[in-house]
Write a sequence for this structure.
């Protein structure tokens, strides 16, 4: 479908009059359910899924304070951290700790962190995100231009200074097979380039799906589709969410003028084999559901065998396990004319 920003209306009913602007922690809502704070209810609830995040969490929280002038609250959905970091972070007035009871996976923990939110907007993010100055406000400003969209993603930079391909087309058989087979040794192949939308300069507009490592979601859209599908332990929960929201009339929009850095993989590095297995299982789960029914049974069999074979290769090849490397430098964000809010086919 093709959609464009709604320049006539700014946000949904109830969103036009924002809560009073209050910067950083002093403007945060504090404890869940607090009603004696003049900044309550907050404008944004920031849900961070934690699992022994180490020093990254403090950097996340400190940089978040400079990313917005709107009142916000932070909920740490903790999947059983043993380093004590989330517990110490909960001493900050804007932070509430919500233990999940175990390592439930990303999407299920995020759902628990979002439960009961009154803010019209939700951020779901990894703790190893570093926010650029004003980046959250830039995201929200764009979101209020796109009245019918449900999810919004910033430009995500790697620690090496590359632009991570965080806005992609929905997986299809052709693109998926080509990307899986060739992406790890030929990152610029046409299937990967088409899937990851790495041609030309990034611009504001619809995408098939957006990375769940840092995602702004309209709460009404998130709740309408039931949040993340808890059957995905790790990976593809963001693909599935954006797909379902798009089918429900809430497309996803990439906002490259908002910039964050993802230092990357702090949790997955501790259990790489488990994460590789989860990635391939989630890929099969998503594609098998998309190609359901008896007529597609042979295709599902080929997918299962192909993904099993790829998983075996990743166990012995670090290069294959790391997947296709980004092909664009962060400098591409500064090339050419400024990003324009346009429309393109999602």
């Amino acid at each position: 479908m093709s959609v464009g920003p709604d320049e006539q209306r700014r946000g949904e009913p109830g969103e036009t009059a924002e809560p009073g602007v209050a910067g950083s922690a002093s403007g945060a809502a504090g404890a869940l359910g607090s009603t004696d704070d003049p900044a309550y209810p907050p404008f944004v609830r920031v849900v961070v899924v934690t699992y022994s995040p180490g020093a990254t969490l403090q950097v996340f929280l400190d940089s978040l304070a400079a990313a917005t002038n709107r009142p916000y609250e932070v909920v740490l959905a903790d999947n059983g951290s043993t380093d004590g970091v989330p517990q110490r972070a909960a001493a900050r007035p804007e932070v509430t700790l919500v233990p999940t009871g175990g390592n439930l996976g990303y999407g299920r923990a995020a759902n628990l962190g979002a439960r009961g939110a009154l803010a019209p907007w939700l951020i779901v993010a990894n703790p190893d995100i570093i926010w650029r100055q004003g980046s959250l406000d830039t995201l929200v400003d764009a979101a209020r231009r796109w009245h019918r969209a449900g999810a919004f993603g910033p430009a995500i930079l790697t620690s090496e200074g590359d632009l991570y391909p965080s806005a992609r087309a929905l997986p299809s058989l052709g693109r998926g097979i080509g990307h899986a087979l060739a992406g790890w040794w030929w990152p610029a192949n046409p299937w990967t380039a088409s899937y990851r939308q790495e041609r030309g300069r990034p611009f504001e507009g619809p995408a098939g799906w957006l990375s769940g490592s840092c995602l702004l979601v309209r709460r009404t859209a998130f709740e309408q589709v039931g949040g993340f599908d808890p059957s995905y332990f790790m990976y593809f929960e963001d693909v599935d969410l954006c797909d379902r929201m798009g089918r429900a009339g809430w497309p996803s929009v990439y906002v490259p003028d908002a910039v964050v850095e993802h230092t990357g993989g702090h949790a997955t590095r501790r259990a790489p084999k488990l994460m590789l297995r989860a990635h391939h299982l989630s890929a099969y789960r998503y594609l098998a559901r998309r190609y359901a029914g008896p007529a597609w049974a042979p295709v599902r069999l080929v997918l299962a065998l192909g993904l099993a074979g790829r998983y075996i290769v990743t166990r012995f090849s670090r290069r294959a396990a790391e997947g296709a490397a980004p092909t664009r430098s962060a400098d591409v964000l500064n090339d050419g004319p400024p990003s324009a809010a346009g429309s393109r086919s999602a």
Summary: The first strand starts at residue 44 and ends at 50.
